Amino acid sequence: MLRSLHIENIAVIRRLDLDFQNGFSVLTGETGAGKSIIIDSINLLLGNRVSRDIVRSGETVAKVSAVFEELSPAICEALDEMGFPCEDSALILQKTLHADGKSQVRLNGQSITQSLQREISRMLVSIHGQSDNQKLLQKGAHRELLDAYAHTEVLLSDYRAQYTALCEVTKRISALSRDEAEKLRMREMLQFQIADIDALKLCDGEEERLTKERDRLLNLEQINRRTDLCYRAIKGGEKVSALSLLSRADDAMRGLCGIVDGCETLSERLQATMSELEDIAEHVLSFADDDREDPTARIDRIEERLEGISKLKRKYGGSIAEILAFRARAAEELETIDGADELLEKLSLESAALRKKAEASANALTAARRDAAKSLQAEVTASLSFLDMPRVSFAVSILPTELCESGADEIEFLIATNVGEPLHPMIRIASGGELSRIMLALRSVINDRDGAATVIFDEVDTGVSGKTARKVGMKLHDTSKQAQVLCVTHSAQIASLADTHYLIRKSEREGRAETNVSALDRDGRIEEIARILGGIEITDVQRDAAREMLGLA
User: In whole angstroms, what is the distance from residue 317 CA to residue 315 CA?
Assistant: First the structure.
């Protein structure tokens, strides 16, 4: 259950701390007091979409955190498998939102992703408001609600694995099943592309080598001149060179051997230096171009090949490696086209086998849905009867369709609001108040099975009043036996049935509007319920009525 909630810098809420109890709790207050802001804050904590404008004006960061306690063994086991063990069956969920839209989420102090936040939040809190009522007008939501009731998660996962594999094979078959003219056109194009690339006989890294060689040839005159100068300075000078001078120095040094200590070592070092210089001179000499071929002709050949490579790059890729990769793909596709008939036969057999498996999984899914639909119809009809809709007929239509991502069923909720009338889709029949009660009936039935720790109803009393509103409150109170129930309401009939009553008020502090929430004692509840019942001024008659409603509760 949601034990405590901390909200900071969310819209008109500067700082708010709320402690919640087990059972059925209601939140009431004047229109505009900030009830929707509390729901938005919880949505933010759960990872649902909210506007970044929710951050309080003038502030840079907003925070929402909640403590959940008395978590069920199933929820604790699921969290433990995710790597978040719950000590004492409790956890802390925190969300920080910056004005620039950036956010961080922490679970028990550990950062988690938003997708993991939403996955965990679904086990903790379920929120139902006017948008959920509108979902009842969408057939896709009907399938989701029935699956939640039937617990088809495993069956649906198995089916989707089969269906995905079937779609992949079907896609490959479609790509191969071109008409003959298209195959011929594609074959000729691929053959041309492969021949175009093969004609140049490319080697990976060739372009870089050719570019270096071209640059060398363009600077050949300067290379030869400087190479000759360097060689003559070290070794090949007619009159004097570095080696000749070192040789004379070595002769002189040897003459000192036996006379001056250390000259033998110096002589050895001179000889080593001479050997190193001679090696450098020979290496430098190799830089010179001794090929008798005209360098201009060689440059022309290199430029011609580089231009050929450039043309291929414009057509097939930005580098030789990419061109060769393109060629490999083209050859593979050509091979596929040439062997298309054989491959098509193989894929067709594979597709038939996968379709058989997918159909078997879809049939198992359909059977589970049909069994659950019978039970759901009976339970929802009973709940609707209690909620002053005794003549409403509720049914789940399951019609066969082609295989799709969610199975092979078209699922739709049908109702008839009057005796003797045929069943029709909800979008054609249900009013706003009826939708609210249908959603409440569905959630009260489904919640017994999906086990969310806390269920929040936002203005479930829309379109109902009097005795019907009282029964809505009784249904909410009954639902709180399976889960903690929080309800934002404008109905005195519902509010008087709560175990705990919170009043939301807006006040002014330091020149700014600010929302606060307080838990009401019995006298406070009498005043608030009388306010909801009454007009501009609260009378003793309204207070007496409030006392009576609380007494009857």
Answer: 6
